Structure formats: C-alpha cells, structure tokens
Amino acid sequence: MEKPEKLIVDGKRLDGRGPEELRPLKIQAGALKRADGSAYVELGANKVLAAVYGPRELHPRHMQQPDTAVLRCRYNMAPFSVEERKRPGPDRRSVEISKVIREALEPVVFTKLYPRSGIDVFVEVLQADAGTRTAGITAAAVALADAGVPMRDLVSAVAVGKVDDTIVLDLTKEEDQFGTTDMPVAMLPRKRVITLLQMDGSFIEEEFERALALAMKGCEQIYEAQKQALKARYSIKPEEG
Ligand code: ADP
C-alpha cells in the first residue's frame, strides 16, 4: 500500500467518512449451525466470524477448575484475509490478540455458574482491514449471548486513533498504517467499564481524553447494532404466533 499524501481532505477521510463516523456495520447473530452460538460481523471491509462452544466439560481435564468455568479464546486470521497471503497457524500477534480478547470478554461471563466446564470462543478473520480484534470482540459477545451463556452485559469494541492530527473513530488499514496512533477499546456498554485498552503510537493527555470519549460513543453505536442482531434472531415473528 502506498502512502497517500493526506489521509484527511477538507474534513473528510479517504473513504468519505467524517472523523467521528463508523464504517458500515452489519451484525448477524447465529450464523453457524453446529456451534452452540455464533455471530458474523462486517465492519467496512472486515469480515469476522465468531463461534462459541459450551459451557461443556473441559478437556484436557487437568485444566478444569473446581469452582469456575474456564474461558478459552482463539483468534485466527485466514490466509486469504490479507493482501499478501498470511502464513497459516498461530503467531505472536494472534497469541496476544487471543489473550486480550479473553480478558475483554471474561468480566461479563458468569463463569462461577459452571465449575469444571470450558467455554470456547473462536474468532475467525475472513477479511481484514484494521480493527479485527475489536470486531472479533463485538462478534464474540453476540456469539456468547447466542449460545445462551449467562452474561452481566454485552461487550462492544472499536478502535480510535489519530491521523493527520485529527482524532478519528474506526481506522481503516490505510489510516492504521500511515496514521500516528491506533487505540483499540472494548467496553461493557451498560456499566461503561473498559475491558480492553491498547495503544500503538501516542496521545497527549487531552487527546487521550477525547479519543476515549469518542471510542465510548462508538461502542454505544455498536451495542445498539448488537442488540438489534440478537432481537432479530430471537423475536417471535407475528406469523409464528
Ligand atoms: P487489528 O486488526 O486489531 O487492528 P493490528 O493493528 O495488528 O490489529 O493489524 C491491523 C491490520 O493490519 C489488520 O486488520 C490487517 O488488515 C493487517 N495485518 C495484520 N497482520 C497481518 C499480516 N500478518 N499480514 C498482512 N496484514 C496484516
């Protein structure tokens, strides 16, 4: 990808969005037949599937915890998800992202209800254009709810950052690559508790405050779409009585 001269022209980003706008978002709850719960998310050019299995007896058994369920997460990028073929299999980045996704989701799951059990969350990135860890968290939260896992809240996630000295919501790959700062954020939308906050680049304090407020606003929009997706799947349609 070549570096464009400017990422923001006359207040508009290269894809036509204003600084505080999300990319087009589509969420489908229940996309897979064989998983206990699933969700499919498109955010701009990102395409992410999440599948949940469990709570079920945890194997290997030595991983079982007598007083709680164990939440396991695996983030994986398909070889065809990026411009240059991605080498299949785990790497440092996917191991790190799997860990932060687990930490972002764990606070909402009532794990204590399921001693000795395991809950497995698989996040599969089919197409990537920056913001896949946050799209993955957004999808995984819907998939957990779709699996009927008891939860305190959903988890909604989006990245914010700085490009051409402007604070922007939901960076594209181009903005992530050529911008100054990328800050993925996950939030429990009802309690407004942050469960993921990473930063690549830097902000001065005032920028950080504005970026965090913008991320939280973005998460609220994502939360509405997550609720809609779950309602669409579970509402009783009139013709079905
Ligand atoms: P996130 O997808 O959560 O923003 P990163 O900031 O690490 O995570 O990655 C930004 C983007 O860079 C990804 O969404 C993807 O488009 C691209 N990318 C990441 N890893 C690779 C890779 N191994 N090969 C090609 N592109 C990649």
CATH class: Alpha Beta
Would you list the SSEs in sequence order as H and E? EEEEEEHEHEEHEEH
Roughly how many Å is the radius of gyration? 18 Å
Identify the overall geometry. globular
Structural class: alpha+beta
Question: Superfamily at the CATH H level?
Answer: GHMP Kinase, N-terminal domain
Please report the total strand number as a whole number: 11
- Uncertain spans: none
Q: Name the bound molecules.
A: adenosine-5'-diphosphate
The number of distinct structural domains comes to 1
- Mean pLDDT across all residues, rounded? 97
CATH topology tier name? Ribosomal Protein S5, domain 2
The share of residues in extended strands comes to 25-35%
Structure write-up:
This protein is an alpha+beta fold. The protein has a single domain, classed as 2-Layer Sandwich (Ribosomal Protein S5, domain 2). Helix content is 27%, strand content 30%. The strands form three sheets. Strands 3-4-5-7-6 form a five-stranded mixed β-sheet. A hairpin with a 2-residue loop joins strand 8 and strand 9. Helix 1 packs across helix 2 and helix 2 packs parallel to helix 4. The model has no long low-confidence stretch (mean pLDDT 97). Adenosine-5'-diphosphate (ADP) binds next to helix 2, helix 3 and strand 10.
